[in-house]
Amino acid sequence: MCRIAVPAALAALAALAGSAAVAQDDAAMEVQRCVWRCLADSRDATDPAYQQCIDTRCNERVLFGSWGQGRDPAAPAAVAPPPPGLVPGWSRGRSPALGEGVVFALPSGAAIGLGCSGLPATPLALRWTAGLLPGAAEAVAVIGATAAVPVTATAGAAVGDACAPPLRALLAGATMALVPGRAVGQRPGGGVVLRRPDGAQIVLSLPEEAPRHGGTVIPTAGALGALRQQAAACTGAALPRCPP
Asked: Around Cβ 184, how many Cβ atoms within 10 Å?
């Protein structure tokens, strides 16, 4: 019988856990790079080819190390597949930091996710941990072209129902982005007006523009089914038909 000393076993487990965390972080960043490449290869984020590219290529690139039908030399080796219906970076279950829900973990170790608020009138909660954007005292979660949620450097939550603009956009499959600064308005026809930490005002027309302003894109492709299931579980019924 093979025996392993307890200290050695603990060290081995710690090493494995660390390797798994690094692999998950790398996979999440690979998905994000894939989303950016899809955007670059499309007319804009409203181009149907953009969403099709994400749906058909980003998962394949991460899980199988290929781009389309050809091998991408820069692609990493295959990683352990995520739970069914979720892309790397997303997980569903109980998070020590955010409780029960569907959670996206950033490479920094911070996380943001959808869970239940426990409030009948506003049953959904978009929760986040501290340090979503390192060094930023305040930031904005931009979801789609018009919805924005202010987030702080400390842990917090924004609650609402499934028809509240940010949550409605998230449950419709809109991309989410985190951008340092504060939302100060909306531009007619689409776009969130932000005041950056340096005082300059910018218009973020699409979440995919976030990296130009020190932000991070959170791809929701591959997590939409889990997000909707979580929302339905929080409301105790099928998602409502929201008014136009």
From this structure: 12
The first and second tokens of residue 229, run together, are 């299931």
Measure the CA–CA gap between 148 and 186, rounded to whole angstroms. Answer: 9
- The closest of 238, 220, 244 to 114, measured between CA atoms, is 220
Strand-pair partners of 147: 143
CA distances from 155 to 43, 79, 152, 240 (A): 37, 30, 7, 29
**CA distances (Å), origin 170, targets 10, 89, 136, 175:** 40, 16, 23, 7
Reduced to 3 states (helix: H, G, I; strand: E, B; else coil), residue 33 is: helix
pTM for this entry: 0.63
| Short-list 31, 22, 23, CA closest to 79 | 23
Q: Among 206, 203, 214, 45, which Cα is nearest to 139's?
A: 214
Measure the CA–CA gap between 17 and 50, rounded to whole angstroms. 35
Distance CA 98, CA 109 (A): 13
Residues 181, 47, 75, 64: is their CA dihedral positive or negative? positive
State the Cα–Cα distance between residues 121 and 108, nearest whole angstrom: 33
Query: CA nearest 76: which of 89, 67, 86?
Result: 67
Dihedral of the CA atoms 87, 88, 90, 91 (nearest 10)? 100
Q: Which pLDDT tens digit goes with each residue over 143-192?
A: 987 888 998 888 899 999 999 988 999 998 899 999 999 999 888 877 88
Give SS3 for 171.
helix
* Average pLDDT rounded to a whole number, residues 124-144: 88
